[in-house]
Amino acid sequence: MKDTCSAIGRPLLVASLLLAVLGGCSTPEKVTPPAQLLHREKMVSLLVQLHLLEAQIEASRLSTDSARALFQSKKKELLWKNNVSETDSLLQHSYRYYALHDKDMNEIYKEVIDSLQARQTQLNGGKPAEGAHPW
Questions:
Q1: Over the stretch 60-73, which tens digit does the pLDDT of each residue have?
Q2: Which ranges in the chain belong to alpha helices (H)?
Q3: C-alpha–C-alpha distance, residues 6 and 2, integer Å
Q4: Is a pLDDT exceeding 60 seen at residue 4?
Q5: What is the C-alpha to C-alpha distance for residues 37 and 39, in angstroms, rounded to an integer?
Q6: What is the phi-psi region of residue 83: left when phi exceeds 0, alpha when psi lies from -120 to 50, beta otherwise?
Q7: Which of 74, 70, 52 is nearest to 61 (CA)?
Q8: How far apart (Å, rounded) are the C-alpha atoms in residues 87 and 25?
Q9: What is the pLDDT of residues 30-82, one digit of tens each?
């Protein structure tokens, strides 16, 4: 169980860093949304699931090539289960759109981090993880 908790901590760190970097980016005034756009709630859910998947695979201690192949396979399965087509790049286009809107992406990643921290707290028996950020 400790491996799982520490494996979740790394994606939290990565997500926190990404949030900080995105906060410093400048955005164009007008960005046209793609024809299809994942709703924020769906985007948050997918990002949480992808970060958890990444943590699980990292905790498995597979070789880099095996881990990459497993992640791609499981990601495809995860997208299929969430009715998101990988072939039309809906996730990629939505991510790019939200990234160009700093405030939207910051809010999305705050929700992702909150969700991951709540899961980590649950795994720790109700105690917050060491170094958890109180946002």
A1: 989 999 999 999 99
A2: 2-23, 40-59, 64-81, 90-100, 102-123
A3: 6
A4: no
A5: 6
A6: left
A7: 70
A8: 28
A9: 667 777 899 999 999 999 999 999 999 999 989 999 999 999 999 999 999 99
CA atoms 106, 112, 116, 121: torsion sign: positive
DSSP state of 86: T
Task: State which amino acid sits at residue 17.
Answer: L
Q: Which amino acid is at 107?
A: E
Tokens of 63: 């070789």
Residue 126 falls in which region: left (phi positive, over 0), alpha (psi -120 to 50) or beta: left
**Whole-number Å distance between alpha carbons of 42 and 67:** 26
Token output for 89: 């790049």
